[in-house]
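Weekly structure sync, notes
Attendees: PL (lead), two postdocs, one rotation student
Agenda item 3: pending single-chain targets
PL asked that the sequence for the first pending target be pasted directly into the notes so everyone works from the same version. It is reproduced below exactly as submitted, 463 residues in total.
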Amino acid sequence: MTAEKPPNLEGLAPIVGLRIRESRTDKGLSQKDLVGERFSKSYISSIERGKITPSLKALEYIARRLNVTVGYLLTGVHPGQSTTTNNAFTPSPEEPIDQESPARWDLLMYEARILREQHRYEQARHLLSTKIRVRQLGVEQLKQYHFTLAQVSVDLADYAGALAELEAARDLADKTGDQEMLARIRQFSGLIFMRQGKPVLAIEQLRQALQAVETGVMKGFHYRLAVFSQLGLLQHQLGDDKEAVEMYQRALHLAEDGATPEKLALLYWNLAVSYRDGGNLTQAKVYAGKSLALYETLGDMKMLTELRSGYGLILFEARRFKEAEEQFQQAKQQAAEHNDPVDHTIACMHLADLYLEQNDLEKARRYSDEMEQGLDKVDPTVRGHAYSSRASLLAAQGDNEKAITYFEDAVQLIEPTHSKELLSKIYFRYARALSAIGNSARAAEMFERAYRQLGRTSLVTDR
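Predicted structure, written out during the meeting:
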């Protein structure tokens, strides 16, 4: 999810920053007092100097800390009035009484964006669909209306509806020569295609969005961060980890000077995964450690638990078994404390694999049994991974016939996901179990599949 802001707010960055600084100094607060542990000092400094525009979520947090409305920070109306979560904006006494004025439509669209930031998506769509009279909107407002409705549609997983709204916005942008809006549409279209599992369409849109950055059409902080981050994720999904790392590093160069800790932590983690999949476990460990340290300060226990398991896997692959065990055990404990059966099951699976790798079959069996108790609560991908873990244990114990049953179930669950790394791992494990019982033909087929997942056409070329 990209950090959003009102599309036409970029030009307001200096005045918004000035209002924040004036409100802060009026109250005798330092920048550190204002942001607390939520944001970095460099982030709020960049906002106050008008260098970047905060996301609406950040703006709402800042307004709450300053005891003013978000509306005041945007419009200069009602300084000192307490903000509420139910009324994002309070009309000023100077606002025209005409309830069908352009100013009213602008306020309603701002309110819809605030509702998005509060994850009140249905309410945002209802407001846009019923409160705004589309036929009375000017061309500029109409572009923003269609774009905002597209964002809300994506929040509600209505991708077809989102693309239809973007197409309407694109037609208007083409007619008015609005290159900035066209760039935003391309970036957001790329995100939708990524969500739909259409990488070819996604990368076509995102490369055009990147061109808007390279040519200086789009200079906004949030836009550039979104494009770099999404291209990094897409390249990683397509298996080009070198390109993914380059994009993530560009995103990180921006983020370390202005992004929220949540976004910075996520970037660190994405870099760690790309380095891991590219075989650079040293760098993977560095960035995974940075991500974990940041998430520990944020109090997001769900993400922290997931990252501990992920960090443990990096340590496992680096054969630092003791450190990996510590991360898996902490993930398991945190999942239990927060009653999260999915993360608990995943941690048990990783522990079973870890002990199996060290040939401690007793402990491996104990955690594998515990893992199986929670398989009804996990998604098919995790279940398939768990079945392959169980199968490997059974094969190590000499029960190859039963292991093959588990492997077959794992393959059926994982193949539709096109998860290359996981599929390759399962095929290799399965092939070894088949070889152990003398089924050479089927084993050769599994080896062949494994190599193809690694980007090789056959075993012959590997030799």
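Discussion points:
- Residues 1-10, 78-98, 456-463 have pLDDT under 50 and may be disordered.
- The two ends are 43 Å apart (CA to CA).
Action: rotation student to compare against the earlier draft before next sync.
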